[in-house]
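Dock protoporphyrin IX containing FE; give full complex structure.
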Amino acid sequence: MPRPTVPLAPGHTPLLGHLVPFLRAPLPFLRSLTSCGDLVELRLAGQRMTLVCDADLTDRLLVNDRAFDKGGPLYDRLREAGGNGVATCPAREHRRQRRLVQPAFRTERFPGYARIMSQRMDTVIRGLRPGSVVDLARETRRITADVLISTVFGAEVSPHVHAQLAADLKELAGGILRRSLMPKPVLPLPTPGNVRYRRASRRSQRIMLELIRRHRADPTAGRAGLLSILIDAHDPDSERQTFTDEEIADQAVTFYVAGTETTAGSVCWAVYLAALHPAVRRRLTHEAREVLAGRTATWEDLDRLVYTRQTLTEALRMYPPGWFLTRETTAATRLGNHDLPAGTTIAFSPYLATHEPSRYPDPDRFDPDRWTPHEDGAPPPVPSVVFGGGARKCIGDEFAILEGTLMLASLTSHWDLRLQPDSLGLPRLPHLTLSPGRMNARIERHTAPAADGPAEAAAPEPAQEGKQEGKGEQRR
Ligand code: HEM
């Protein structure tokens, strides 16, 4: 019996396809497509793709990484920026790379990473001035970028080199989604954006290769850093048993792109959602102040930051940073009831999967108590699709939860963050990750002492309450 063809999503126009609704309000647009069936065809400015709307089929696609290999416009552009790193390489190359990178993410490394995280966030968070209005999206990205560069290259990189690398990697990451939505003929043109992108790419590559060479020349430098782990990485089962310098630089770009905006965005969403839910905000503030008493969180505090972790997890479920990802079929294959030819570009959305009512009842309700620890104290796992799945599951998931928990608790411990009415001045274009865009908050000292019970935390400024979520939904 012939298999049904994948239906074309409604609302396309001849030239742009579905680009306009996709750019104007991507999340409501994706949600609207779930009524069209398990799979639906999307056309984004000439690029055809099959969107998986069903959560079970998304799981099935994720575990079959050989049939549904990394590919599609997003990964094509990511490869341009991060070469063939572990996140972008094809399945045939992936097992080797994953084995070589894995030691950097072993549990015993985490106390060391946590020390770097606490140091870097302490400088930024304590440096905020009471009474000032800051863009939390920028400050949290500054922290995650600093943490990434310091964990990879070691804390001894000079401030000047550190700042240049941070600026170049930021430019690279920012260019990826922009370029993945551009028609191919525009990519080589010397537009200002393309010129900045290429310059940042060349310069960051040069800096990283120099740092790697210096590390190789002086094996005593930065021993705890991720770079030395990648330099030492050795896989006797592979034909090519170690990483080349260029491969290591590719991994560094990969970690930066995968681990900076994602973690920062999840902390911002947690602050934002807590601001809209005063009871959550009170519990969060109470915990941070009771456990930390006004200082920055460290590795030793983690076991007591239970509600902070729950809030972060629920924010990740509500707004998973990796919200729209792509694959390419390597051979004719079947997904659900549909036959897909080789070379089909597939898109899937962790956002759709974490809003599947059969998995998360009342999915639009923000409820950190979904993640109350089990009786043995173990936290329920973060919804796995937030970090992908199968062999390509995020390698930095625990790194991200660790950093996000420390950062959310530290921000809340030091300051009373009051979101400003304009705090969701979202960019019109969706980003590579689902980040909230600009998020202005006034920094105030806490007033009531923490020991008095759940602290009376300020609700959001009146103009934003209730409206913000609607506005956010509208625009993404
Ligand atoms: C909240 C923060 C984060 C989220 C939500 C997140 C999400 C994801 C997702 C969804 C994938 C799978 C992509 C796909 O299947 O197409 C992924 C892969 C990956 N992530 Fe993360 N990530 C986060 C933080 C990090 C951090 C901090 C790092 C590194 C330090 C990192 C490194 C990677 C790498 C290397 C991969 C590719 C894994 C592979 O293909 O073997 N991520 N991440």
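Observed: The pocket of protoporphyrin IX containing FE is lined by residues 86-87, 98, 254-255, 258-259, 262-263, 266, 320-322, 325, 350, 386-388, 392, 394-396, 399-400 (CB under 6 Å).
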